[in-house]
Write a structure and sequence with these properties.
Elements: H1 25-40, E1 43-44, E2 51-52, H2 55-68, H3 71-169
Antiparallel strand pairs: 1-2
Helix pairs in contact: 1-2
Length: 170
């Protein structure tokens, strides 16, 4: 490897040498190729796989590459960060929704069990009321029949008495 330094052409100025103009894609590729050449042709450190490069030149080229990167990359990084935040918020909201749904499900199950219990109790009460009303009706009929039988007996006795008295009077 030679210890010659790779000549650096300053890139990043507009056609009129204006500072702050961004390098074009082709210029970025040229800078990257020069950095590769610089590292490839750099003097090796004995007994090591390390090499010596001119720090200022390499840092300048890296700055030029960074400045030449499209604005869309920083926008994409910002969007990725926003997406991560949105995903984190969505996960939190989904977890909250799941907890709420589980709680509501538990309440509904409890309410369903209470409702079933109430229905069973209502059914038992209806059966008991039906039995009681049947019993009351049967007792009322039996009572009315007893009274009518007594009345019939009394009326029959009165009729017999009236006929007997009517016969006696004739």
């Amino acid at each position: 490897m030679s210890d010659q330094r790779v000549p650096i052409q300053r890139v990043g100025r507009g056609q009129a040498g204006q500072p702050g103009a961004k390098p074009k894609k082709e210029q970025i590729e040229v800078l990257l190729a020069r950095m590769e050449d610089m590292v490839g042709s750099a003097k090796s450190v004995p007994l090591s796989d390390k090499c010596l490069v001119n720090r200022d030149d390499l840092l300048f080229m890296l700055r030029m590459v960074r400045e030449g990167l499209p604005e869309e990359i920083s926008q994409a990084k910002w969007l990725l960060e926003q997406n991560k935040q949105l995903i984190a918020e969505a996960r939190k909201e989904a977890e909250s929704i799941m907890r709420d749904a589980e709680a509501q499900t538990a309440r509904m199950i409890d309410e369903h069990e209470v409702t079933q219990q109430a229905r069973m109790e209502a059914s038992d009460m209806m059966q008991q009321a039906t039995r009681q009303s049947t019993e009351i009706r049967e007792n009322a009929v039996h009572y009315a029949k007893g009274i009518l039988d007594d009345l019939d007996k009394q009326l029959t006795e009165m009729l017999v008495y009236i006929k007997k008295n009517n016969k006696d009077l004739q």
